[in-house]
Amino acid sequence: FSRDQIHNFAAGPSPLPEPVLEKAAKGLLNYDGTGIGVCELSHRGKEFKAIIEGAEANLRKLLQVPDDYAVLFSQGGGTTQFSSVFLNLLAARRLKHADETNYAPPTVDYVVTGSWSSKAYQEAVRLSIPPAPGAQPFAEPRIAATTKPAKFTTLPKADEYDFSKDAAYVYYCENETINGVEFPGPDSQSPYAFPFDRVPDGVPIVADYSSSFLSRPIPQIERHAIIYAGAQKNLGPPGVTIVIVRKDLLVDTTEAMKLGGIPAVPIQSEFKTLADNKSLYNTPPVFSIYVSALVLEYLLAERGGIAGIAEVNRAKGDALYAALDEAEAKGKLRVVVQEKDARSLMNITFVIEGEGREKEFLDGAEARGFRQLKGHRSVGGIRASLYNAVTLESVKALAEYIKAF
Ligand code: PLP
């Protein structure tokens, strides 16, 4: 097959824009006439410095990241951030209460709306385990709202959240990649919008944006303490994770550890170390950052910035959901997320009705060049991921197939 015969609906790692890949292939061999490939150049040399600084500047421009936030290029994927946000925010909390001799473990509030926020919550539970049996735990993780009883097919409504007054932080996942639920977009008046106003003043808000990063503007970015996202959906190849952190949360975790009451923080997880070293504390994932830098340039120059991207993503989602709703009315399939305001524009999940029909659907899709449509192994069914590099034409072609099936 050639690339133009294939429509790739992968959930991640996801497709990348072809002009970017062509440029990256050249850079891998010979970066900018240096005679050296980009992965063979020092990460402390002037060439890579320009790449990473350009990437940061373009990211700030695209998402309008305020100046009082640091943009970090970290490693270990989204999964490492499940631990890192806990560790850094617990350290920040400990330093804020430095004078307390009877330091009480804080609550940490999780909004659990799918597989990924569940995993993040479980990591907080694990890291809270006391240093010795019977000792005080490091934190008290709580579930502030969950849609688990509804099998993660919807989102909580504003009055269903129960935030604690003085949590070390509140955590949510903006788009649940496996289940296909996403908080409604910027400025939404929907009852499913994330209830920023209900979070007590001063409590830091953390958002996992891994699978919706750069798909549209981030609502109320300044209401967040930390926003993080693995690159491998809308930004670049796997290997780099962007962490946007409010600068007052870049704390010295060693000082916090000395006070006691928090777990040990590996140096790689400390946001301050990463920020102080401009994301070059250790060897960074050079190739992933390079391709991400090219994607950011491309999004600004060719895709009309974040407004242009959001418009196309809306059109893609509308086209596919319209076809699915039509097929559902005919009894052919079932859309997993029924509530329109809770539907993801990035990961669209559905189940084909009828014995043996799912295989038929997937075989037919394969024959027509539609790839990687099988749902996540934990939930089954079908999942079409419509990340930025998936074109409206590909989505329309899939919509036609669904209507005809
Ligand atoms: N959070 C979300 C929303 C994800 O979709 C994923 C992975 O797909 C992760 C976290 C975990 O990321 P990683 O695989 O980079 O550790």
TrEMBL record:
UniProt KW keywords: Amino-acid biosynthesis, Aminotransferase, Pyridoxal phosphate, Serine biosynthesis, Transferase
Enzyme Commission (EC) number: 2.6.1.52
Coiled coil: none
GO molecular function per UniProt: O-phospho-L-serine:2-oxoglutarate aminotransferase activity
Pathway: Amino-acid biosynthesis; L-serine biosynthesis; L-serine from 3-phospho-D-glycerate: step 2/3
InterPro entries associated with the record: Aminotrans_V_dom, Pser_aminoTfrase, PyrdxlP-dep_Trfase, PyrdxlP-dep_Trfase_major, PyrdxlP-dep_Trfase_small
Cofactors demanded by this protein: pyridoxal 5'-phosphate
Record-linked Pfam families: Aminotran_5 (PF00266)
Enzyme class, broadest EC rank: transferase
Domain (Aminotransferase class V) ranges: 7-398
Catalysed reaction, written as an equation: O-phospho-L-serine + 2-oxoglutarate = 3-phosphooxypyruvate + L-glutamate
Classification via NCBIfam families: PRK05355.1
Family the UniProt entry places it in: Belongs to the class-V pyridoxal-phosphate-dependent aminotransferase family. SerC subfamily.
Name by which UniProt lists this protein: phosphoserine transaminase
Record organism: Vanrija albida
Organismal lineage: Eukaryota, Fungi, Dikarya, Basidiomycota, Agaricomycotina
Gene name of the encoded protein: SER1
